[in-house]
Amino acid sequence: MPVIAPWPTTRSAAQLPSQRGDADEAMAAGTTVDHLTETYRAHYRSLLGLAALLLDDTASCEDVVQEAFIRVHSARNRVRDPEKTLAYLRQTVVNLSRSALRRRILGLKLLSKPMPDMASAEEGAYEQLERDQLITAMRGLQRRQREVLVLRYFADMTEAQVAETLGLSLGSVKAYGSRGIAALRVAMEAPA
Q1: Which regions are flagged for Polar residues bias (predicted)?
Q2: Which CATH number among 1.10.1740, 1.10.10, 3.30.720, 1.10.287 corresponds to the domain 19-112?
Q3: Average pLDDT of span 134-149
Q4: pTM to 2 decimal places
Q5: Strand, coil or helix: 119
Q6: 8 A C-beta contact, residue 166 and residue 148
Q7: CATH for 121-189, among 1.10.10.10, 1.10.238.10, 2.40.110.10, 3.20.20.70?
Q8: How far apart are CA 71 and CA 76, in angstroms?
Q9: What is the pLDDT of residues 61-89, one digit of tens each?
């Protein structure tokens, strides 16, 4: 509860200022644009120095201090006491400087990650030729050999799964697979 000072009894009730009005006037003094602007102008260099201690380049320091003014200006109705305006500005400068440093660190982490290795154009063309040659060789296999190899190596199925899928015995799957690979080797090694 606020302490209420006794009023002199020589004034009439009409002459007494309302207690609520005094409190509103005090709060309004801390929230005015003029007061905030004057505080900002008077302490701009010290706020800039504070940002400079936390950051390393002048442009970022100036950006942080200006952003702090904008944020405090937009939230000036929360600054109840005019004496705390500078404290709000300082704290906002510190918080914005921390955020700027976090963004920089994150950016450096992202930049330090190596880019994935990309195949050169020659390697890509060579791989395409090999793929084309493999597809042509696969088409030259017997139907069952091709089915077994596609299910076993391209669909990544076990021999038992291939046998079940094709309705063959496990021994037949192994035989078709073995003969298919041998035929592919011969076809792939043959000059085109």
Answers
A1: 9-18
A2: 1.10.1740
A3: 90
A4: 0.45
A5: coil
A6: yes
A7: 1.10.10.10
A8: 8
A9: 899 999 999 998 888 787 778 788 888 89
